[in-house]
Inverse folding.
């Protein structure tokens, strides 16, 4: 059985990723799990300058899910390169930098700086953050804008380029096609869905930012459906996520057309999830006689 | 820091609270007062996230730990239904601690309601080290005082809002009446409702006494990864501190109190 995943001429050792924003810079989890077993760690969104993020409260639990309005709080790309990357060196997992910006120029400046940093496997461009007014969501909702941004980054990026899609659009396939045309090596989906919880005794939203992004098992059927639709629309690999808690959940995404998956919210609930999902996928492959990732894609039309 | 399973030894109601005692194997990191656990209360997706609770005690010889909690919502409701021999799914010990502290200062420990846990653990450590301290516990009314949990405390002052037990007024009202010179030579450690900790800080600031508080915020990861659990940092310049990573214990002057 060969669980390698090929994206943009490079390969990942296995299809398990840990989703941006749920895994810090990877090292936060090093006492809990051998990071080397993970196929890819997607960093917290990196911006050109450090960001403090939104006012609290930033989190609230919802039925089988949670809302967050972190607001892209991160150390900034320079501190990531000098302080965080060296700590990831002992681990063989791929490090994929998740990147956010409020202008095309800012995205490009972040990519330029990362190009000079050894050990980064590739980039995941966040054009879909629902939590900041210029968090890139505008880039993710208009196909022409998304295509142009992808083209510009493509010119600078020598590493695999993944564009992360928003579910908060009317036609996700159109955006997926546009970024494929722009030169993306893969697309990942989905980012969080916009949601709100209101405290009825205070008569105000629980989150200081009012709305937040919904993640966790509650969004899994949405993620599976959109992965399926995106896979139909493009030829490049699709990386699926949204609510994966178990190997069976991950297999749903692979059957829907994903070549790799990411685990997000589940890391908060059980730090062993990446390991359990990887083991479970291996068992499934053995049982179902699946030899490689693309074999998953033959079943569902 | 670890994720693991342990065994519940007892989970008993004490007045308005529950006292949960569980095994803490010697191979596990030694918990410090102020540190907390993140507990998964059910193997389901509702509730989904772990729930944070401060350690309220640790007995190295017996290999046991405890927490004191109150029923708030679904998660703590489920926790309260656990029985001895049930499994407890935890990550921890997480966060920082009240230690180290200056032992040539007089220590005043203050707890309000369910903020009792971490302060009680701190008192236990001070007792073991033969260090003197004063302990002030505040509750609304006599019925809400968990006397059986407080029996280890030598210098205990009880305060009730309605005066049904001990001093009539809040724990901070009592602090205000402490001899000013003594207060100046004291360090205050407080855990309780936000308003109580804020008021305690104001009294301390007026007297130039150091004040440490243990803060709460809604958490997801509990280990510094998600940036979810922040409180505003002093300065009104939009900077934040993570309760799970920089805290939960803060020097009260670091916080922008609202
Ligand atoms: C560092 C720390 C230490 C704590 N120590 C104790 C303790 O020793 N004893 C105790 O009784 N309680 C303690 N709490 C509060 C405890 O975590 C909450 O009461 C509990 O999470 C409520 O869960 P629920 O499902 O019953 O309530 P719900 O209101 O249904 O919970 C909904 C969501 O909000 C979160 N939440 C609700 N209230 C709080 C709160 N006050 N602080 C943080 N998150 C909250 C929950 O974790 C959950 O994610 C502590 C909190 C923190 C941050
Ligand atoms: C607390 C939190 C922070 C997140 N931050 C980011 C981020 O910085 N960049 C990004 O592209 N996605 C971010 N996401 C979205 C996740 O990467 C993922 O797309 C989403 O949570 C769905 O997966 P899940 O249901 O497994 O969590 C964040 C999600 C959560 C819960
Ligand atoms: S709870 Fe995730 S950073 Fe504190």
């Amino acid at each position: 059985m060969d669980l390698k995943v090929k994206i943009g001429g490079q390969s990942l050792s296995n299809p398990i990723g840990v989703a941006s924003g749920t895994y810090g810079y990877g090292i936060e989890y090093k006492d809990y799990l051998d990071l080397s077993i993970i196929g890819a760690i997607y960093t917290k969104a990196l911006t050109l300058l450090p960001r403090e993020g939104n006012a609290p409260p930033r989190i609230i639990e919802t039925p089988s899910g949670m809302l967050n309005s972190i607001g892209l709080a991160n150390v900034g790309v320079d501190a990531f390169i000098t302080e965080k990357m060296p700590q990831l060196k002992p681990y063989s997992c791929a490090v994929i930098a998740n990147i956010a910006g409020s202008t095309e120029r800012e995205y490009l400046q972040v990519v330029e700086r990362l190009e000079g940093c050894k050990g980064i496997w590739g980039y995941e461009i966040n054009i879909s953050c629902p939590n900041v007014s210029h968090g890139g969501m505008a880039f993710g909702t208009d196909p022409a804008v998304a295509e142009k941004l992808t083209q510009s980054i493509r010119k600078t990026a020598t590493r695999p380029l993944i564009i992360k899609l928003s579910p908060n659009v009317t036609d996700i396939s159109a955006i997926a096609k546009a970024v494929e045309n722009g030169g993306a090596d893969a697309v990942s989906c989905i980012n969080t869905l916009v949601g709100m919880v209101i405290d009825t005794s205070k008569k105000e939203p629980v989150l200081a930012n009012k709305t937040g992004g919904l993640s966790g098992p509650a969004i899994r059927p949405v993620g599976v459906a959109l992965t399926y639709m995106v896979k139909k629309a493009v030829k490049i690999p699709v990386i699926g996520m949204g609510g994966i808690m178990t190997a069976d959940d991950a297999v749903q995404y692979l059957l829907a057309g994903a070549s790799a998956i990411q685990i997000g919210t589940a890391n908060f609930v059980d730090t062993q999830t990446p390991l359990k999902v990887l083991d479970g996928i291996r068992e499934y492959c053995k049982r179902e006689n699946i030899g490689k990732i693309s074999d998953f894609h033959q079943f569902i039309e | 820091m670890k994720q693991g399973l342990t065994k519940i030894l007892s989970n008993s109601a004490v007045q308005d609270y529950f006292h949960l005692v569980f095994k803490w194997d010697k191979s596990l990191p030694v918990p410090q007062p102020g540190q907390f656990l993140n507990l998964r209360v059910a193997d389901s997706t509702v509730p989904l996230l772990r729930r944070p609770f401060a350690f309220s005690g640790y007995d190295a010889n017996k290999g046991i730990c405890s927490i004191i909690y109150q029923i708030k919502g679904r998660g703590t409701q489920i926790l309260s239904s656990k029985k001895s021999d049930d499994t407890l799914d935890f990550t921890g010990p997480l966060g920082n601690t009240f230690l180290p502290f200056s032992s040539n200062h007089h220590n005043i420990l203050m707890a309000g309601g369910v903020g009792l846990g971490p302060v009680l653990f701190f008192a236990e450590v001070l007792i073991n080290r033969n260090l003197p301290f004063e302990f002030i516990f505040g509750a609304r009314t006599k019925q809400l005082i968990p006397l059986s949990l407080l029996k280890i405390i030598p210098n205990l002052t009880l305060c009730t809002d309605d005066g049904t037990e001990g001093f009539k007024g809040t724990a901070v009202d009592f602090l205000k009446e402490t001899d000013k010179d003594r207060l100046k030579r004291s360090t205050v450690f407080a855990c309780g409702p936000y308003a109580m900790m804020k008021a305690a800080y104001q009294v301390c600031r007026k007297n130039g006494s150091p004040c440490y508080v243990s803060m709460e915020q809604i958490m997801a990861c509990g280990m510094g990864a998600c940036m979810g659990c922040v409180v505003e940092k002093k300065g009104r310049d939009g900077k934040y501190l993570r309760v799970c990573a920089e805290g939960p214990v803060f020097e009260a002057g670091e916080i922008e109190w609202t």
Notes: The mean pLDDT of chain B is 95. Chain B touches chain A through 30 residues (CB under 8 Å).
